[in-house]
Write a structure and sequence with these properties.
The complex is a heterodimer of chains A (about 150) and B (about 450). Chain A is an alpha+beta fold and about 150 residues long. Chain A contains 6 helices and 5 strands; from the N terminus they run βαββααααββα. In chain A, the strands form 2 sheets. A 3-stranded mixed sheet of chain A has the order 1-2-3. In chain A, strands 4-5 form a two-stranded antiparallel ribbon. Chain B is mainly α and about 450 residues long. The longest helix of chain B has 26 residues, at about 180-205. In chain B, helix 17 (about 315-330) packs across helix 19. Chain B has helices at about 15-30, 35-50, 55-60, 65-80, 85-95, 100-120, 120-140, 145-160, 165-175, 180-205, 215-220, 230-250, 250-255, 260-275, 280-290, 295-315, 315-330, 335-350, 355-365, 380-390, 400-410, 420-445. Chain B contains 22 helices and no strands. The chains are: A alpha+beta (about 150), B mainly alpha (about 450). Chains A and B meet through helix 3 of A and helix 7 and helix 21 of B.
Chain lengths: ~150, ~450
């Protein structure tokens, strides 16, 4: 059994040129952990999801490598956090897409798919090896439902 | 020839030529940054032994274990201390002391960085101060760039003031037997002046142009620095041990102890306090995690470098170079000291100051007969320290702290580029050298 048998074939996606505001709406209204960001030709540009969204409302120094380890001293209000997001709301989501934690292919074995989901705790994109175009996504929910016969 | 260098090595090469070649090759590869500097230094040391320039025993004797112990000890103390959040506390407290005024913050964070750098190593200091700086700058909606550049300067200037502030001082202090007090009495006065003048220049250059809105300043004023302290018990233990270690450094001569012994003993006591009462498994985990924070690249770099320098020293190269330097300066202490100051600074701005100082130490030592004995070499040691440490500010690659800040700034979207930095930093480094020159002439020459 391979990744192809458990992936979502028509996942929710955003275009790299779309505004961040649009991607945020999609993530929150669809309660999606992460959605693929695509180039015009259908190739994967990156992922945009809850983790990235949390990062964008925090100070930059909190999310960077070797950044600040504790923000207990800060007293920012909701409107301060909103202001951070509003500041970038109209910019293209491409600028904020994260490189995927791992990329799967339709022929990736099921165990390897499971292992990568375990390691990355993400929704993972599935791309066509030859063209690099997105063909689906895989989430822990989908795989576990399949394994437990609830799909 | 057990334990000694040989006059000729494999293939009948002269030891002098072989050692010179290895030294130049080691320097060249370190400067190219193509291979990690610790690997290069260890390879250089290995080749020195394999070619027969040094015996294994002589190579081991070349390693200054006092320096190694001092570095490792302080790295462990800092690794434990940083966990309690005291550095963030001080940075936030200082920003609030100036009512979150950007120009005031520019000044205060320089002072905080300089003081921390005098007591800790520079890279650790900037790793702790820079992220808080970025948070404050973001809240104030001002550019972090001016403060980050000023912090680079402060870290290198502050580190010059003490024995433990900067690796060149650790090397000089250990090799010459200079104490913590010797460094403070000799260098701290001029360092205070240089730091204040530098802060004044940064104010004229950038500080007076930094403005923040009242609402943004109010947000910083609402920071609660006490919440930055994550572990009060650890805070008390860390500061207690750090204070005792510094008292130990100050009293080292009376105690007949080397600084390395004091630092390593302090590290062991702090580790004991940190893991006390935990299960054996937890102790192993925490001790392993703290040891992981020791910068082993730096430690092995030092080990390899000591051996390479021991090789060229045994081969007689440094004695020849010292004779040339004395001949060039006419054996005049004033000219020699100022030459050491300025050449050290200019070279330290472009090459790693650690190998440079490691090479200069035996070279200066061998000038003792010319100047009437080792006790008359003091001006040269202070010139070397001031030149090597202050020179690090001249370019972005001049010191490890500079590259660390640049790396953090890049990740946060405030890149510090080589040429724009050079345009500001090199003239400012020259100002600090002029001040150091005046001080040297007034006090020692």
């Amino acid at each position: 059994m391979t990744c192809k048998s458990v992936m979502t074939v028509a996942p929710l996606t955003v275009n790299g040129d779309d505004a961040v505001r649009h991607a945020v709406d999609l993530v929150l209204t669809q309660q999606s952990l992460a959605i693929p960001v695509l180039e015009k030709d259908g190739k994967l540009c990156g992922m945009f999801g809850l983790h990235r969204l949390l990062e964008l409302v925090l100070p930059r120094a909190a999310s960077m490598d070797q950044g600040i380890g504790d923000l207990a001293f800060m007293r920012d209000r909701v409107q301060d956090l909103q202001a951070r997001l509003n500041h970038i709301a109209e910019r293209p989501v491409r600028d904020f897409a994260e490189p995927p934690a791992a990329v799967l292919h339709p022929d990736t074995p099921l165990v390897e798919t499971l292992f990568l989901l375990y390691k990355t705790r993400h929704v993972l994109p599935v791309t066509d090896k030859a063209s690099g175009k997105l063909v689906g996504t895989v989430s822990s929910w989908l795989v576990l439902r399949h394994i437990t016969g609830r799909s | 020839m057990h334990g000694e260098a040989t006059s000729s090595v494999v293939f009948g090469w002269s030891a002098l030529w072989a050692a010179s070649l290895i030294l130049v090759a080691t320097y060249a590869v370190i400067m190219s940054e193509k291979v990690n500097r610790a690997i290069v230094a260890l390879l250089g040391a290995g080749v020195m032994i394999l070619l027969g320039v040094l015996t294994q025993e002589a190579a081991i004797r070349g390693v200054d274990f006092n320096t190694i112990a001092l570095l490792v000890g302080m790295m462990i103390i800092v690794a434990v201390t940083r966990k309690c959040g005291v550095f963030q506390f001080v940075a936030i407290w200082s920003a609030k002391k100036v009512r979150a005024n950007p120009a005031g913050i520019l000044f205060m964070l320089q002072i905080v960085t300089a003081v921390f750098s005098a007591l800790l190593d520079n890279v650790t200091t900037v790793l702790l101060v820079v992220p808080v700086t970025m948070v404050i700058a973001e809240e104030l909606k001002i550019k972090a760039y001016p403060i980050l550049v000023a912090e680079i300067f402060a870290s290198n200037i502050g580190g010059t003031a003490t024995l433990i502030g900067d690796p060149p001082n650790i090397l000089i202090g250990s090799a010459v037997g200079l104490s913590f007090n010797d460094f403070v009495f000799a260098l701290a006065p001029v360092i205070v002046v240089i730091q204040l003048v530098t802060a004044g220049l940064f104010h004229l250059l950038w500080g007076r142009g930094l403005h923040a809105g009242l609402e943004d300043r109010a947000r910083v004023m609402q920071f609660n620095e006490k919440d930055a302290i994550t572990d009060t018990k650890l805070l008390k233990q860390s500061l207690g041990v750090l204070a005792l270690v510094i008292v130990g450094f100050i009293s080292a001569h009376q105690l007949h102890l080397e600084a390395g012994t004091i630092a390593l003993f302090g590290a062991a006591v702090l580790l004991l306090l940190y893991v006390f009462g935990r299960s054996a498994e937890e102790q192993a985990h925490e001790t392993h995690a703290i040891f992981n924070e020791v910068e082993w690249i730096t430690i092995f770099f030092f080990v390899g470098l000591f051996m390479v320098v021991a090789g060229v020293e045994h081969a007689g190269l440094l004695r020849i170079l010292a004779e040339k330097l004395v001949a060039a300066t006419g054996g005049d202490m004033k000219v020699t000291a100022l030459a050491v100051l300025w050449v050290s600074a200019i070279l330290s701005a472009v090459v790693d100051n650690i190998p440079f100082v490691a090479t200069m130490i035996p070279l200066i030592k061998s000038m003792a007969p010319t100047f009437g004995g080792p006790e008359n070499l003091m001006p040269l040691w202070w010139a070397l320290s001031l030149g090597a440490c202050l020179g690090g500010n001249g370019t972005l690659v001049g010191a490890s702290a500079n590259l660390t800040v640049a790396g953090l700034a890049e990740r946060a979207g405030h890149p510090i580029r080589f040429v724009p930095y050079l345009k500001i930093a090199f003239p400012m480094m020259l100002v600090s050298l002029v001040l150091a020159t005046i001080y040297m002439l007034w006090r020692y020459l």
